[in-house]
Amino acid sequence: MEINAILDNEPKVIKTDEGSIDGQNKCPKCGSTDISLNSKTGLLRCNFCRHEFEPEKVQGMETDISQLEGEIIGSGTQNIVEETQNIMTFKCSSCGAEVVIDTSETTQARCHWCRNTLSVNQQIPNGVIPDVVLPFHLTKAEAKEQIENFVGKRKFFAHPQFEAEFTTENIRGVYFPYMVVDVNSHANFQGRGEHEVRRYIRGSGENRRTYYDADLYDIEREFDLSIEGLTVESNSDRLEKNSNKTNNVINAIMPFDIENCVKYNANYLKGYTSEKRDTNVEQLKPLVEEQSKDIARFAANETLKEYDRGVNWQKETLDVKGRQWKTAYLPVWLYSYQQKKGEDSILHYVAVNARTKETMGSVPIHMPKLFGVSCLVELIGLLAMVFASDFEYNWLFLLAGFIYFFIMYMKYRNTNARHHHETETKTKIFNLRKVDKLIKRQTGLSNAKMEGANNKRVSGKNVSENIIDTISNFKV
Fold first, then answer.
1. Is residue 435 located within the same domain as residue 308?
2. Which of 63, 320, 390, 394 is a Cys-bridge partner for 5, taking CB atoms 3.0 to 4.6 Å apart?
3. What is the mean pLDDT of residues 438-459?
């Protein structure tokens, strides 16, 4: 698929930390600096007088994606500068003491004399301060329940050591860094599609076969497409696919309700940990472009419902008219467990979306038990094949053990779990133009689906590998 970027060379920068101040963030009612998030309401709350105040929204970013032109980035999205000083010194406005904050570790510290809290809210080019933050909504108790239910459904084949050591007391709330991208584009697809008009059976016994008649069409779809809130990880550790880590499950709990993001304020992070961004826009562009193509392809499917046998696109073009980038902290409750395997180890995660309760994870498997039960299922399958000798496809019973092993393994490990960006990202089609021209009726087809159908294809290119290769050029 071709993708053409009709963008200015220099991006327009929107200052998303306008009005933010470093130092003391005071309660507007009593002046206290002891402020934290009330996850039940999503509001910041003064821990002294209990006053809650409305969050600020980022100003200046384009909200009508169909009007996007050129490249726009939030100021928190600008390139990471390797030489940035992480250590910052503030003078407490209450007592005059100097307080040092290591921004690579935290964005808040208490004055050691007057105990007021000092915060870093203005953006510095080290990837620590994003444009927006999505506050936690789930409490720790709710997250523990989700994780316990997830693991509880996988106890039978769980490794005995894992069962003995499993506890949700050590789960932690983490703000992970993401890049949120809006795209205004124009798509054009040209190809052929098939519509089934008849199916019938010929022959008998072993020669019994199903055949299909289908109309073949020349088709074209052209439309404007807005993509809102395409979300990709912006930390290289989670972009990297490693067999010793099950961090793909963190990706799988998306999407987040990005529309509820608010202007960054260090008080949202109090009581939680965070992970800083270490990738830039240029390194993430290949991944965003690949996922934008997938989204456009699946958006076109909404106009192809009559082509039940599939569509073979022979030409696919996506012209990008405008694109908007902003960095975001998104909330996740995370459980981790390190499984020792000789000299190696596997790090298993169970992650909970702290907005939607979506849960995904990996549980260590007791392989001897799974293998033994699978052998038993295979034996039962062999017996069933013998007693079902009149069944035309009785040989399928031979696969029973293998199928059972595969299903259980995938249920426990979820190695294929991922965020389905192609269908779970918000899109809107405008100015649709459709061309459907009948070419001919095909008869006696033996395939249930169109040969070469690719309208439900998701790009297989592992662009994250290319991103990892370039991290060393700018990683802080």
1. yes
2. 320
3. 95
Residue with tokens 């809130």: 229
Average pLDDT over the chain reads 90
The closest alpha carbon to 133, from 333, 332, 427, belongs to: 332
Residue 241 burial (10 A CB sphere; 0-12, 13-18, 19+):
middle
Q: How crowded is residue 75: how many other Cβ atoms within 10 Å of its Cβ?
A: 19
Is 393 part of any domain?
Answer: no
Q: Examine the domain organization and report whether 40 and 6 are in the same domain.
A: no
- Domain co-membership, 240 together with 97: no
Residue 413 lies in a domain: no
Q: Rounded CA gap, 417 and 343, in Å?
A: 27
- Statement to judge: residues 179 and 53 lie in one domain: no
- Say whether both 438 and 326 belong to one domain: yes
Q: Is residue 395 part of a domain?
A: no
Query: Where is 118: in which H helix or E strand?
Result: strand 117-119
Please give the DSSP secondary-structure letter assigned to residue 448: S
Looking at the structure of the chain, the number of domains it has is 2
Question: Is the whole-model pTM more than 0.85?
Answer: yes
In sequence order, the β-bridge partners of residue 290 are: none
How much of the chain is in helix, strand and coil states, percent to nearest 5? 25, 35, 40
Helices 400-413/367-387 angle, 10° precision: 150
Residue 342 CA to residue 237 CA, distance in Å, equals: 24
Place of tokens 């909330």: 331
SS3 177: strand
* Spatial separation of the C-alpha atoms in residues 369 and 189, rounded to whole Å: 50
Residues 10, 30: one domain? Answer: no
Q: Which long-range contacts (CB under 8 A, 24 or more apart) does 62-65 make?
A: 62/182, 62/322, 62/324, 65/182, 65/183, 65/184, 65/226, 65/227, 65/228, 65/322, 65/324, 65/428
Dihedral sign from CA coordinates of 350, 359, 292, 8:
negative
pLDDT single digits (tens) 331-364: 999 999 999 877 788 999 999 999 999 999 999 9
Instruction: Give the C-alpha separation, 107 to 419, whole Å.
Output: 30
- Domain that includes residue 205, residue range: 2-15+130-147+170-359+428-471
439 & 458 share domain: yes
